[in-house]
Amino acid sequence: MTYASYPALRLRRPRASAWSRAMHAENRLSPADFIWPLFVTEGQGVEEPIAALPGVSRWSVDLMVQRAKEARDAGIPCLALFPNTQPERRSDDGVEALNSDNLMCRAIRAIKDAVPDIGILTDVALDPYTAHGQDGLLDEAGYVLNDATIDMLIGQSLNQAAAGADIIAPSDMMDGRIGAIREALEEEGHANVQIMAYSAKYASAFYGPFRDAVGSRGLLKGDKKSYQMDPANSEEALREVALDLEEGADSVMVKPGLPYLDIIARVKDAFAVPVFAYQVSGEYAMIEAAVAAGAGDRDALVLETLMAFKRAGCSGVLTYHALHAARLLHG
Ligand SMILES: NCC(=O)CCC(=O)O
Ligand SMILES: [Mg+2]
């Protein structure tokens, strides 16, 4: 087939007016594209602003319920919860993750009680609970043990599911944990609890502010390169995704987001399954720093970066800008 060429063909013609641009848009953003990560802290009526994430706070459970209502009213379908565990409840084995009355479980129950029609995604990994800030159990040399960690992750997943979590999202990058968690969920009567696998999670420099938010930055010794992926690799991301899908993941995630759009596009092309991205704390902080420096307009930067995820093939995005973006789109 041959196309017309200039001047019969002018690609600027459909761009000339707003109505026509709207009609020709290949992708659209809506509040339903967003999952809102929120940080829970102890107490009543407590808001703790996070310096490294201007505009983001930790909220106590009672105020978290207010955030959940705002999210629902703005059309956001799902929240992702992260606990800032009190230092005295952190230990080498992170056993607080298994406590059915821990901060996470109390937050899940309170939100499900007050706002039953919003989804709750819970992160599975031990880093908010360990005294060393690593995602799993360590051997004497400080290596993160794979199979022993999986036993803890199963317990953590079942604990969250019992509290009412709708989507279990293992972010630990242990080999084989998706299959083990799926099997345990089936056995314990949680057949409808989904798994969103953090399949391609990279050992990234963009997680710094998150570690402040969950209180693990000062604790973490070394790095996470023995389990998170090398930013040099993309074939390996396809293998990670293939394994997680074989093991029973309902959806997969690529993390961080914007520096890894190529991975998102490859995963979507190769597997045609629901792919989500995590626009992580360092990405949020970079946008806010640009805005503070007068280098860009917040609303435009936020919507353009979120649209990029849709264009790359994402079903949705975990983003700290979720409420702001959803309200912009709602008008
Ligand atoms: N498991 C969740 C994260 O590590 C979040 C990272 C971030 O927002 O920087
Ligand atoms: Mg894996």
Describe, in plain words, how this protein is organized in 3D.
The protein contains 11 helices and 10 strands. By secondary structure, it is α/β, with parallel strands linked by helices. It has an 8-stranded parallel barrel with strand order 1-4-5-6-7-8-9-10, surrounded by 9 helices. Strand 4, helix 3 (103-114) and strand 5 (119-124) form a beta-alpha-beta unit. Helix 2 (61-73) packs across helix 3 and helix 7 (235-247) crosses helix 8 (261-271). The site of magnesium ion has 5 residues, from helix 7. Mg(2+) binds at residue 240.
Secondary structure elements and pairings:
Layout: H1 18-24, E1 34-41, E2 47-49, E3 57-60, H2 61-73, E4 78-83, H3 103-114, E5 119-124, H4 146-163, E6 167-170, H5 177-187, E7 194-201, H6 208-213, H7 235-247, E8 251-255, H8 261-271, E9 275-279, H9 281-292, H10 298-312, E10 316-319, H11 322-330
Parallel strand pairs: 1-3, 1-4, 1-10, 4-5, 5-6, 6-7, 7-8, 8-9, 9-10
Antiparallel strand pairs: 2-3
The structure holds 5-azanyl-4-oxidanylidene-pentanoic acid and magnesium ion.
